[in-house]
Design a protein that fits this description.
Length: 408
């Protein structure tokens, strides 16, 4: 039996290794437009590769129907993943919060070991080959590049990812390929990405980082809140809390809904505690200018800006500030509202939301419900995971189940 896999990322490589281990008679050709395999694995986790997570739940995934991932996460849970890793010689480092990294702390070793497994199983790698279209004629699949046709495949897995990180040659070709087989897809959008804000002083506070509580509002309704680092940048906001919030902000933004965030710079204190902290600071040093006093509790880049926002003269002495001004200041410190105007785009996104509709794909085998012998796995599907190893874990799990079915 002749198998084609489009995309040598986590999903495609896992599928190929799984299928060939189960059926040595398969001829497997993996096509990739890059000059090497696993380019996104190499880039992941800043080169450390947050490869999986021990706390796996379908609620860590977003999509039109996120319960689609339940079967895959059950069948290929973390312990099965760990077993697979051992089988290729990869040992793991499990952190207290459940995040998992290679013990070597290097994504390179993950890709190196996958490459060895592919070689020893005699799976063919056809690199620098961009598959533009796939056709099925007389029960056989034909893969087409711009110049050439590859014929005679009994089954094809499309695991070519979506548009996040185009600098790594990411494409959305899977969507055209799927459409030609009658599949529909949900619009794609950058996920786990920095957000642009309408705040006019962004350039003055860039580089400031503060653990905060970020609340997302869509058309005035609270959507979710996430605690973590906020990094102020020249275009707006980034940092872990913002990347996480972006997963819920970007799609509504693409629909022109009103998207706003509120930043609470003191998530561990309530309003009265923040008010008390400021009042006591101002009482202790009444002759000091408030701008310098504020640098005792927030970054010296933020202090003058927060006063500007509230139209409070920076040179005001602490003893002269009014109760109304203090209340306004406290409000900004714990409920700093900003309008989200755009995102940093696919180039800076870690993942892509949207994709091929999962209701048209079998959750157990990842085979298309529209075309026998055609499979989809990994990021091409309308499933995007939270930060923390969830995207790679879905790629591994879906690739595993697709590979198992392909081997039959
Ligand atoms: C900077 C960055 C950091 C990340 N960090 C993490 C992390 O720490 N943890 C985590 O879980 N996830 C992380 N992710 C997300 C994760 O890497 C992806 O979700 C995952 O790799 C998707 O795997 P995949 O196999 O579905 O697709 P991909 O890894 O995208 O693989 C698809 C392959 O197909 C190739 N291809 C595309 N189009 C074609 C075509 N037409 N013909 C032939 N080949 C084609 C691509 O070049 C690519 O090699 C990160 C992503 C980025 C960009």
């Amino acid at each position: 039996m002749k198998i084609a896999i489009v995309g040598a990322g986590a999903a495609g490589l896992m599928a190929a290794i799984t299928a060939k281990r189960l059926n040595k008679n398969l001829q497997i050709d993996i096509f990739d437009n890059n000059n090497g395999i696993g380019k996104k694995i190499l880039a992941s986790g800043n080169g450390r590769c947050n490869i999986s997570n021990t706390n796996l739940n379908f609620t860590n995934y977003i999509g039109e129907n996120n319960s689609f991932v339940k079967y895959a996460l059950n069948q290929f849970d973390f312990y099965n993943f760990e077993k697979f890793c051992k089988s290729i010689g990869l040992l793991l480092d499990i952190k207290e919060d459940g995040k998992v990294y290679p013990l070597s702390n290097e994504a390179k070793s993950v890709v190196g070991l996958l490459e060895k497994a592919i070689e020893s199983l005699k799976i063919n790698l056809i690199l620098e080959t961009k598959i533009e279209d796939i056709k099925k004629e007389k029960e056989k699949f034909i893969l087409k590049t711009q110049e050439k046709e590859y014929k005679g495949y009994d089954k094809v897995l499309v695991s070519s990812g979506l548009g996040a990180a185009p600098q790594l040659k990411a494409t959305e070709d899977a969507l055209n390929i799927a459409s030609n087989f009658g599949h529909s897809f949900n619009p794609t959008y950058p996920s786990l990405v920095g957000l642009h804000t309408d705040f006019e002083y962004n350039h003055k506070i860039q580089g400031v980082k503060k653990e905060s509580l970020v609340t997302l509002f869509i058309d005035g309704q609270k959507e979710c809140e996430i605690k973590g680092d906020v990094l102020f940048t020249k275009y707006g906001v980034s940092g872990f809390a913002i990347l996480d919030i972006s997963q819920y902000a970007v799609y509504p933004l693409s629909l022109y809904q009103d998207v706003q965030i509120s930043i609470n710079l003191f998530p561990e204190k309530n309003r009265n505690e923040v008010l008390g902290m400021i009042e006591s600071l101002f009482k202790t040093l009444p002759e000091e200018e408030i701008v310098s006093l504020l640098t005792g509790i927030i970054s010296n880049k933020l202090a003058p800006i927060l006063l500007d926002i509230n139209k409070i003269d920076k040179q005001t002495k602490a003893k002269d500030i009014t109760a109304k001004q203090i209340r306004a200041l406290v409000n900004t410190l714990i409920n700093w509202r900003m309008k989200i105007t755009d995102t940093q785009g696919f180039k800076h996104a870690e993942a892509s939301g949207g994709g091929i509709r999962v209701d048209e794909v079998d959750e157990r085998s990842f085979e298309s419900k529209k075309c026998k012998g055609l499979y989809f796995a990994g990021e091409v599907l309308d499933i995007v995971g939270n930060r923390g190893g969830y995207n790679l874990q879905f790629a591994w799990a879906s690739g595993f189940l697709a590979g198992k079915d392909i081997s039959k």
